[in-house]
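Example 4.3 (complexes with small molecules)
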Amino acid sequence: MLGALKKRGLHRIGDVLFLLPRVYEDRRSLKRIAQLRGGERGTIIATVRDTEESFGRGRRFFRAILADASGSIAATYFQTGPWLKARFPIGKRLVASGEVRQSLRGWEMPHPEIEPADDVETSPIHFNRIVPVYPGFERHEQRSLRELAFKVSEQYARAIEEPLPDALREKVGVLPLAQALRIIHFPPPETSLAALDGHQSDAHRRLAFDELFFLQLGMALKRQGVKVTPGIAFDVAPPRLEAATGLLPFTMTGAQARVVHQLARDMARPEPMNRLVQGDVGSGKTAVAMVAASLAVQNGYQVAVMAPTEILAEQHFKNFSRVFEKAGIDVALVTGSGASKAKRERRERVASGQAMIAVGTHALIEDAVEFAKLGLVVVDEQHRFGVMQRHQLMAKGVRPDVLVMTATPIPRTLAMTMYGDLDVSVIDELPPGRTPIETRVFTDKGKSRAWEAVREQLAQGHQAYVVYPLVEESEKVDLSDATQGAEQLKAIFPTARVGLLHGRMKQDEKDAVMSAFRAHQLDLLVSTTVIEVGVDVPNASVMVIEHAERFGLSQLHQLRGRVGRGAAKSYCFLIAGYARSEEGQARLEVMAETNDGFVIAERDLEIRGPGEFLGTRQSGLPELAVANLARDQDLLSLAQAEARAIVEVDPALERPEHVRLRKALEERWEGRLKLARVG
Ligand code: ADP
Ligand code: MG
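Answer. The structure with adenosine-5'-diphosphate bound is encoded below.
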């Protein structure tokens, strides 16, 4: 047993105490074989009648027939050997637990947990109760692990220090930690098995709260840390604010005005702003960032605007130039490409302070780039940048204000977990005059109807995107790839000018294709997901997404946001591959039903879970063992509010009632702090 524990990284008593059961087994009453139901787990007491070994398809099998007065069932193993046989002596009474299923040969229990039946009446641990099943251990190891867990939870759980102050615990209404830990291993008989298996029992709730709370507490401390050191207090008096909003060639939406108000308030404070602005594609985030930029510039400070790709940086550069140059403000483009002389010249303009706004890629954070007086950092499409990069850029100024924009609607819970150190603003309203994109789901067979609609759009002088999930044919041969797709489309649309864009192309090749499409020298752009990020071609009115079932909903939404940016009505056609599942189909229908990125993001999070939702494991998102971000939203809000409230009154966690809190925080964040760490 010790070996097995070590192998799984469980070295200390505390490791066992905090080892969360995967599921639970209902052993409150033993079942008769005849009472078992297929697909359910059950525990029976039975006598070994017979055993047999068999061979087939190069594999060896072992079956033991177990019987009670009501019937018989086979314990089955995809292996065999003397040791296995030795566990089933004919005539021996055993307890077997496991999932039951019906096969061609009758009822079976594959790889059940087998225990001697001798102590069924007397054992306080293994029978007549709900017992835990631990992850990462073989079934035959469960019994001794259970014994260990019993000992540990009986004897040591109570020695666990309660990290939460009583007042907080009572306010939130969660169990004491010691009690929760005992219950989580050996729940009282009246506990709902469904709640236990769903990790939603009161004991789970306590552990989930802790997980979220300590995460939020760490974030809150960070946030406080950023705020306590003074930064720049910008003057945002009404004349300046009016001058700033006056730069925009339109009236702001209500949502934009609200967010601008929040930004201005942040900027006016001496503590550095640290704010995330979330909003759907085209909701007008960039416009809001321009207002903030203007406020900084009017105060004599420079602004850095960082975008994740060259295409986007150039687009931002054009937009910022258009707005600011008429006000006589110099805007410089800082990217990695281009002639070195031009690059140096632009950098000098930034260093001398002549260029008040520098728009660029991550080239902005290179050592060679210096600012004369950087006061505001705007980071677009946050989740593509590491938190580190955000901070490298911040380091080029003296505690500049930071504004992060993301066009990927992130469910609130996820934003709170990823960006708990940031204040969050949401632009939840689109500028007027947009016709919603019409989205339809087609099967592979119905695809020709989608092409018909594309033909119509092209005939009206519009442009189209066709998106594929993969660059080249891989082992997944059922996926058409973009290259091949482009050839086919040339055949389908013989008169259209077709361009191809994929991730393996060099940056300048990509840029050339993109520029050609923007200049309407191409009618149809075949692409992999590289167009996902913020590309703006208003004349493109239709997008076809092949193998749409391979994309996450949020990604589809991002892609779809590339159309509907002009005045014309726009369309998005999702082609579901033949291999789609029913769930996949239901997922795609969500796209047809709503254009609201937040609704889609919530659904996506529910379906795929946080890790996959973000499409990256390096997202800075901590691993949560008990809490579930899709499910535990209320708990998370509570955790954040309480954590922030505590840090507000006691930023160093020095008060006597917070000492244990600080200790627990240090323990829990050890090793993980790095992940979510900001600086
Ligand atoms: P985002 O950065 O959120 O994608 P942008 O700020 O680029 O959005 O705005 C998208 C488009 O809508 C741009 O062409 C912009 O000029 C326009 N726009 C933004 N806000 C408004 C508004 N309040 N009224 C009219 N048009 C707007
Ligand atoms: Mg944008």
